[in-house]
Amino acid sequence: MFQNFTWTIPNVLSLYRLIMFPFILYALWVDLEEVFAMLICINLITDILDGWIARRFNQATEVGARLDSMADMGTYLLSFAGVFYFKVDILQSHLLALYPFFLLFALCHILPLIRFKRLPSFHLYSWKIGGYIQGIWFASLFFIEFWPAYYYFMVIWGILAFSEHLIIQFLIDVAHSNLKGLYWVVKDLKAKKQAAN
Predict the structure, then answer these.
(1) Region of poorest pLDDT, from 19-33, 61-75, 137-151
(2) Complete DSSP assignment for 106-158
(3) What is the H or E stretch that residue 170 is in?
(4) Nearest Cα residue to 68 out of 133, 10, 20, 29
(5) 78 in helix, strand or coil?
(6) What distance lies between CA 90 and its chain's CA centroid?
(7) Least crowded by CB within 10 Å, which of 8, 99, 140, 175?
């Protein structure tokens, strides 16, 4: 993958997020809660920026999409590790809702490794919106307060987005990047079927 790497701003931002993982993990390890939360928030902001720049300036590439997905997954896992480590007392009575959330999230990454021998890089609209929702929840949890209603909204949105992702995995035969959503995948499959007939 990295032999096709180009030094575009979106790719550099994704690479930055990957490079920051050891520093975020260290902040978690030594109980630097504010540093941890700030580094995660910076990662989330650079994620928004790299996607916007890639689309706005036509710098989206297959390598960039896959690099972005790796950085997203790492940031995601680290952020929730921090949530469980620093905020488990606040979430204690609400943890049950996260079991289906994390199960579907794990399946979304394990199944493509089995089927396509690579991590997914669909970049569905539902996942992008879900990323904003989860980012706002993370920032509010660490810097403001815990809002149960917003928490459950985030969990439900995540479950629906992960379900869409899994359905798409079973519809396609070859791994693709930047698929937008189920509607567009079905539309494309119908068009290909009509063209074949």
Answers:
(1) 61-75
(2) HHHHHHHHHHTSS--B---HHHHHHHHHHHHHHHHHHHT---HHHHHHHHHHH
(3) helix 148-171
(4) 10
(5) helix
(6) 24
(7) 99
Cα angle 163, 167, 170 (rounded to 5 degrees) comes to 145
Burial of residue 50 (number of CB atoms within 10 Å: 0-12, 13-18, 19+): buried
Residue 8, token pair as written in the block:
């575009």
Q: Quote the CA–CA distance of 185 and 173 in Å, as a whole number.
A: 12
Model confidence, pTM: 0.84
Residue where the block lists tokens 């899994």:
166
CA distances from 138 to 41, 73, 145, 161 (A): 8, 15, 10, 18
For 65-111, write each residue's pLDDT tens digit: 778 878 888 888 999 999 999 999 999 999 999 999 999 999 998 99
Tokens, residue 93: 């009575």
Q: Is 191 exposed, middle or buried (0-12, 13-18, 19+ CB in 10 A)?
A: exposed
> Token pair of 17, please?
């997020």
